[in-house]
Amino acid sequence: MLKMTNDLKALIGLINNRLTEHSYGEQPNELYEPIRYIMSLGGKRLRPVLVLLAYKLFKDDHETILDQALAVEVFHNFTLMHDDIMDDAPLRRGKQTVHEKWDSSTAILSGDVMLVRAYDLLLDAPGDLRVIIKAFNECAAGVCEGQQFDMNFETMSSVTEEDYINMIRLKTAVLLGFSLQFGAMLAGASEASTKALYKFGVDIGIGFQLKDDLLDVYADQEKFGKQVGGDIISNKKTFLLLKALELANKEQKTQLTQWIDKKEFDSAEKVEAVTAIYDQIGIKELTLGKMNEYFNKGFESLDKIEVAEERKTGLKSFAQYLIERDK
Amino acid sequence: MLKMTNDLKALIGLINNRLTEHSYGEQPNELYEPIRYIMSLGGKRLRPVLVLLAYKLFKDDHETILDQALAVEVFHNFTLMHDDIMDDAPLRRGKQTVHEKWDSSTAILSGDVMLVRAYDLLLDAPGDLRVIIKAFNECAAGVCEGQQFDMNFETMSSVTEEDYINMIRLKTAVLLGFSLQFGAMLAGASEASTKALYKFGVDIGIGFQLKDDLLDVYADQEKFGKQVGGDIISNKKTFLLLKALELANKEQKTQLTQWIDKKEFDSAEKVEAVTAIYDQIGIKELTLGKMNEYFNKGFESLDKIEVAEERKTGLKSFAQYLIERDK
């Protein structure tokens, strides 16, 4: 696997340092402690890194926009805190979720105040605050829409490829797009560059989520952090499953539907059987193809940005790192 | 009871018309339908009316700031949607709450997007957007803090008067204060006037909540919409209860504590007994006194605002209407 460069590690270090110093509020402690908790669980800090990398395409004083980079990380963790309640998830990054450690009311209310604090972090942004918050709002509403579409899919008998791509675009990709767009806005980049960076982020984000779906089935268990086949066991409507349902012949469709409907089953047996059907249909190649289509589209947008090629190295190598991850 | 003036009714009509026209978003319908639902349940539209009345102290073209007035109503209804989940409330304005009509996940997520839409409505405000959003954020975080303090009080054995007033200041009063402050900001009023209006709103708001506590016990059942004594039945830590616990002699305190601890009781009997203890201690007069203290402080702030007295008529008569309500 591709290693993270020292430059990237330095940016993550900057963000983590600033996060440690940042105060979300003090009293009542019951409201603010869960925020400090979820923000301390770590993670790759992918989104604020994207803000900084986009800014660094154009300007070198990225230390001046650290608070704005934090805004997207605080927003992202707000969505995680609320999504975990809706998904009834017990764990987040291997630790208890907020609604498990405290309760749902605490997770709702702490999440709400996190969203307010994300807006607070936007306020000292250089540039036109109205334009920035308008873009942020569009992204934030989109993320909520994506989560709702994802919940709707759970009870739908069939989901089209188009609907699925639209869902992951909203739920995952628009925030990556906004992070890059925001970095460009903060640097005072041209509208063309800002738009191209947004497109780059959205396309890479869709590819990124397709890779997630793919790894869940085809990852090397020794390198993968979670159980391979988790999505198969829970009948999650991933790109792989919906394409398999679309392309299966009559016999394959019957088998697939039987596995989906089974209430009692051996997990390993189900994962093996469903994976075998995916293999027959060629789902792996098909998903890889779709994923690369989005990654390639993304890089085309990046090529169009008119800055010296050497300035793009950081962003390119980070995108490459995301693409080649195997867990 | 004091009647609402025709001028006030006209302002409420303006707000309701604009609310009907306003679009929060379309797809997915599951996300936006609950917003249209809760916004259609009505209510006095108190907060946007305060925005307009404060603006009208200084300027006459209040039709130009209707969207900004809606922002505080959308924000207020967002807090109701989430509070109803936390309080497990079945009804809101006599209709099913959102989490009852749909489910908790829907109420969480629709609420989240409502908060984003409230920020959207602020964006075209005349004046310094940074200052406006900073004040809005401070208010929004305060409302969350107030709700958390209120939840904390449920499991605390004693709550001081100071802590209680601070809780209702945050949970209820700061949003009334912000609504007035915001109207003044939108009109480009002086900082002194803006601050005085904020103080007026906060003090009136605290008095308003004390009146709520009082009416719950001492309202005329025929005029009161809800069951008189509801707070007594549920042991809600109101100003009346905490002052009674503070001022009761040994025997009264024993009686009060017995009623609070009883798991099985006749509701009418409990209401009568606890009200009798309140009467012995003089809780009604004490609460009335505290309430009038805040109302008077509020009107002192209003007096200090340097605009022609006749411009203050609308705001004064609305405050008077709120003070003299008997339901």
From TrEMBL, chains A, B:
Metal-binding among keywords: yes
UniProt keyword annotations, A-Z: Magnesium, Metal-binding, Transferase
Gene Ontology molecular function terms on file: metal ion binding; prenyltransferase activity
Coiled coil: none
Family matches, as Gene3D superfamilies: Farnesyl Diphosphate Synthase
Cofactor(s) this protein requires: Mg(2+)
Gene Ontology terms describing biological process: isoprenoid biosynthetic process
Domain of life: Bacteria
Matches recorded under InterPro entries: Isoprenoid_synthase_dom_sf (IPR008949), Polyprenyl_synt (IPR000092), Polyprenyl_synt_CS (IPR033749)
UniProt record similarity statement: Belongs to the FPP/GGPP synthase family.
Database matches in PANTHER family: GERANYLGERANYL PYROPHOSPHATE SYNTHASE, SHORT CHAIN ISOPRENYL DIPHOSPHATE SYNTHASE
Name recorded for this polypeptide: Isoprenyl synthetase
Natural source organism: Roseivirga spongicola
